[in-house]
């Protein structure tokens, strides 16, 4: 007898197979006004979204941007892109250059002898982009207690540009072990700017107003938030993330804050079992999603990345006449090329 297919699995299959994707039932605040969308309701932020004093650029375009709660998923909050164009470029640089390098771990460093620079920086440097990067020896790999997958992905040596295409994640702060599903790989300092950005978001989403139904908001005091662990996920146009619950964190009362840069995607949010039918949400570049309260323990995943959806402010930064800061990124074409074909997700969790 064929195994019973859960509602979550069914939705994942629908988006993985659908070509062209059927987005008719997905919540997409970029195409349907929230007022016309029964799945969401607007909430009022009770605190300003403020750029931390230590960050030398204006991160947010409004102090109190529109924010939404999902009617069927108490605690899931969405702030459609509150960032300035310059802030999105700054975030992309953080996620591509500053973070995926030692002492942070990536999916590749157990298998390749990676230099101290990020793969993105090497791939963008004409003198270094074709230098071969060697595999680690079998002994080295065995000592790092990971299993060497058979796919060429991990066995074939390559240049920085070919390895950049194989970079799937990097871990920040407490280092997550994907085999044991524990934070048992030591820790690295969490990027201070990213942490202060995540704290600013945690403060702004504290106890949002209009909570006739408090369960749909967030009762966590954002002043207590600290990014103790984080993951940056890199998706190419074919990449997906299977449904899961993030439950390794010792305490789950703080929001899990998640940012998207580059291509849009379909994000599924379900319930505490796979039997709840998930709601599909289209996440766009710059969107902030916070899994608070009940939704913190809900199944979620990314069954589909949507090609050709990177905003022009990232794929051709001089497109906007009022975007003076674009000139500060003369080498932006490397970023533009990457972001045209990838989605980056950066998320932060408080664990204790
Ligand atoms: O890419 C996303 O938006 C989700 C990432 C996620 O669920 C995770 O890293 O645990
Ligand atoms: Fe997750």
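^ Assign residues to that structure.
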């Amino acid at each position: 007898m064929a195994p019973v297919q859960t509602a979550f699995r069914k939705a994942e299959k629908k988006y993985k197979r659908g070509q062209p994707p059927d987005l008719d039932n997905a919540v997409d605040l970029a195409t349907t006004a929230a007022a016309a969308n029964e799945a969401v309701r607007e909430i009022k932020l009770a605190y300003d979204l403020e750029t931390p004093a230590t960050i030398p650029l204006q991160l947010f375009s409004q102090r109190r941007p529109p924010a939404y709660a999902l009617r069927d998923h108490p605690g899931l909050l969405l702030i459609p892109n509150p960032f300035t164009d310059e802030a999105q470029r700054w975030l992309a640089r953080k996620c591509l250059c500053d973070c995926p390098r030692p002492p942070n771990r990536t999916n590749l460093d157990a298998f390749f002898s990676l230099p101290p620079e990020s793969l993105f920086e090497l791939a963008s440097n004409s003198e270094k982009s074709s230098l071969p990067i060697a595999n680690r020896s079998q002994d080295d790999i065995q000592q790092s207690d990971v299993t060497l997958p058979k796919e060429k992905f991990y066995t074939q040596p390559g240049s920085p540009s070919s390895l950049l295409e194989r970079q799937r994640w990097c871990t920040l702060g407490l280092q997550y072990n994907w085999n044991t599903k524990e934070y048992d790989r030591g820790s690295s300092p969490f990027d201070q700017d990213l942490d202060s950005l995540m704290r600013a978001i945690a403060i702004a989403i504290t106890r949002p107003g209009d909570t006739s139904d408090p369960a749909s908001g967030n009762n966590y005091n954002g002043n207590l938030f600290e990014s103790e662990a984080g993951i940056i996920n890199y998706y190419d146009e074919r990449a997906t993330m299977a449904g899961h619950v993030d439950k390794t964190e010792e305490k789950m009362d703080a929001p899990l804050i998640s940012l998207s840069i580059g291509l849009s995607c379909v994000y599924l949010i379900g319930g505490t079992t796979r039997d709840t039918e998930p709601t599909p949400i289209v996440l766009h570049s710059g969107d902030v999603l916070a899994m608070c309260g009940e939704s913190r323990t809900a199944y979620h995943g990314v069954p589909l990345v949507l090609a050709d959806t990177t905003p022009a402010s990232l794929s051709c930064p001089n497109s906007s006449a009022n975007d003076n800061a674009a000139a500060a990124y003369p080498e932006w074409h490397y970023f533009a090329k990457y972001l045209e074909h990838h989605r980056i997700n950066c998320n932060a969790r408080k664990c204790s």
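The chain has one domain: 7-107+168-349.
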